């Protein structure tokens, strides 16, 4: 599969300057392509570019286009320790004068990404305040999938530009568009309803009775933050079999934080009725029910569709067989160690585009996707979790497509110890742990020593 030459340099448009788009730009340039990154925001960072102003956003994200990209709230800290976060060749170092915690706040990761940009001189490749409004094939009959039209708007001048590229890499993220449940009475409930996408600080909920829907990371983080601010917090979960860590939090705050099953219906008098017949009068409901994939700018003539959060068909979550390799996606998988995985995707895409490597035939890619879907269905995985990977083996096998280094053992182990700690000690896992020996191993590895002392002088 590997050939020596790199005969083709492509003109590539990368959409988005978050962690996926930045590393895509870096890898494309390294492979000899000319890449332009179009970013709707004023700076890099994607989700990590905190946006405190959310008043213009529809609280339930029902408008066709969102005003705000980042769903980060003010108090947000990483769920995984900093050692495992970095791209393979750019460790997430502790820097004096900055947030030096092992599980730092969101700003520290933003600063890491800025350092990454600086180190690899990526800023010159990015056009900021440029929102992509349309991506489609240029005259399919004439060029097939070889040329793409990208229409973007400069947000300051409102000027619309149309450009033609050989390839497009979509790196627009998928934690912005609210995924909402359907609940009887939701449309007519007159009190405050919002999605965690626009939750920023607990203050607006002072002395309120708040129902928090969903007990995954956003739901538990927000519910815990509301303790001591809101009058009561009612946490509605799909299952009442909850992890030990959450149980401990509930017992500690049993007067104010109460677990319920799913909501049955909402009533005009403000009542929220749960499926076990219990009910509360609530002032606010915060839906922490996750996010949906959405590509409002993308016209693929139905060759890529989003069906209940399954983006497909995509070969290895990256290439749509009918449009590959000129259209690709970075960052679709969830439940992975993000940055190194995005890096491996970017490297593979860059090498496929240059002709250094080739993809299997259309038939073989489609067969592989079919087998993958069948295996997920057989395992009882709901469609909306198609891109939840949760497998180091998968990441390693994926990396083999472009001889990407396998995840270091310490990285895998540190990931697992943090997950285990968060399950049993939800409230404290970011500040108290017992895997210091593994941290030492990480710090002595080449991942951390490769840049030398220079790296600390940014
Ligand atoms: C609340 C929250 C907490 C999280 N915590 C963690 C964590 O602790 N650890 C972790 O690893 N991950 C975490 N994540 C996941 C996080 O999304 C990823 O770490 C990472 O940001 C994904 O990078 P990305 O580049 O794929 O997408 P994003 O970071 O979403 O970046 C996408 C970029 O595309 C741009 N864009 C979108 N549409 C357009 C358009 N039409 N035109 C131009 N530009 C466009 C956006 O402005 C944005 O800059 C969290 C996510 C959320 C929401
Ligand atoms: N760094 C941090 O501290 C932090 C904080 C928040 C979020 N994040 C990240 O952000 C991403 C999104 O996390 P998230 O928590 O917002 O979304 P999420 O992980 O998708 O979780 C949403 C939860 O809501 C549940 N749900 C859906 N409908 C429901 C209903 N009607 N009633 C009760 N529960 C319902 C879902 O159950 P099903 O899964 O069964 O549908 C799921 O458990 C994740 O990658 C996460 O790691 C990180």
Polypeptide structure, described:
The chain is 26% helix and 19% strand. With 458 residues, it is an alpha/beta fold. The chain has two domains: 11-177 and 291-410, FAD/NAD(P)-binding domain, CATH 3.50.50.60; 186-287, 3-Layer(bba) Sandwich (FAD/NAD(P)-binding domain). Strands 3-2-1-7-21 form a five-stranded parallel beta sheet, covered by helices on one side. Helix 4 links the parallel strand 10 (209-213) and strand 11 (232-236). The longest helix has 17 residues, at 338-354. The model is unreliable at 1-5 (pLDDT under 50). The structure holds flavin-adenine dinucleotide and NADP nicotinamide-adenine-dinucleotide phosphate. Flavin-adenine dinucleotide is lined by residues 15-21, 38-41, 46-48, 69, 71-72, 76, 78-80, 131-132, 171-173, 175, 218, 297, 331, 338.
Helix and strand arrangement:
Blueprint: E1 11-15, H1 19-30, E2 34-38, H2 106-119, E3 126-127, E4 130-137, H3 140-143, E5 148-154, E6 160-165, E7 167-170, E8 177-178, E9 192-195, E10 209-213, H4 217-226, E11 232-236, H5 244-252, E12 257-260, E13 263-266, E14 271-274, E15 279-281, E16 284-287, E17 291-292, E18 298-299, E19 305-307, E20 310-312, E21 327-329, H6 338-354, H7 362-378, H8 392-399, H9 409-424, H10 436-444, H11 446-449
Parallel strand pairs: 1-2, 1-7, 2-3, 4-18, 7-21, 9-16, 10-11, 10-16, 11-12
Antiparallel strand pairs: 4-5, 5-6, 8-17, 13-14, 14-15, 19-20
Helix pairs in contact: 1-6, 9-10
The protein binds flavin-adenine dinucleotide (FAD) and NADP nicotinamide-adenine-dinucleotide phosphate.
Flavin-adenine dinucleotide (FAD) binds at residues 15-21, 38-41, 46-48, 69, 71-72, 76, 78-80, 131-132, 171-173, 175, 218, 297, 331, 338.
Family: Belongs to the FMO family.
Cofactor: FAD
EC number: 1.-.-.-
